[in-house]
Amino acid sequence: MVRNVRRRRGRPKDQELTARRCEEILDVAARVFAERGYAETDVQLIADELGVGKGTIYRYFPSKQELFLAAVDRGMRRLRAQVEAATADRQDPLDVIAHAIRTYLAFFQTYPEFVELFIQERAVFRDRRKPTYFEHRQANVKKWQDLVRRLIAEGRVRDLPVERVTDVVGDLLYGTMFTNYFTGRARSFEEQAHDILDTVLNGILVERNYVRQ
Q1: Which of 28, 123, 167, 194 has the fewest CB atoms within 10 Å, i.e. is most exposed?
Q2: Nearest to 34 by CA among 92, 74, 6
Q3: Which pTM value belongs to this model?
């Protein structure tokens, strides 16, 4: 006779609780690292801000370095999520690009701490093959290149190498992000997005003066 044996199971891990706690830790970590710098930040400071033991943080992030890099990575994931949300219902490729640029500039205006983390990552972890920002940029660039290809196919954009277009626009936004951070520009992201779109899409020369390369 085979008896049914009930095995006692441990309490199932609450994935939502785990994810929420990770987000809470990374929120505080990003702010503290940005304010104090990587070298001057002890994990205990972050634990104190959260009202938890230092060991609790180490259960989620085994080292200060992993915590810092996870905070930087989360900033890029949040940026991508906001861009995707802002462009989800847009059909026209130019409209998608315009809203993406506005969202990008608005994000770093709202969360300047992530710009500070990019600077610290480059300064502290110079041996990393590729900074987090560029890892995400490379991983997501295909979507934007496909939009450019579509615009070229529709005859709305000159037949340029799509990599050149995405590199130029990407570098322009990257530089604008840092310029805003270092100079404290007071201009709104809407104004900046308008100027970038107008200059990139319409150019600065009238057609008869265009210089062929």
Answers
A1: 123
A2: 74
A3: 0.88
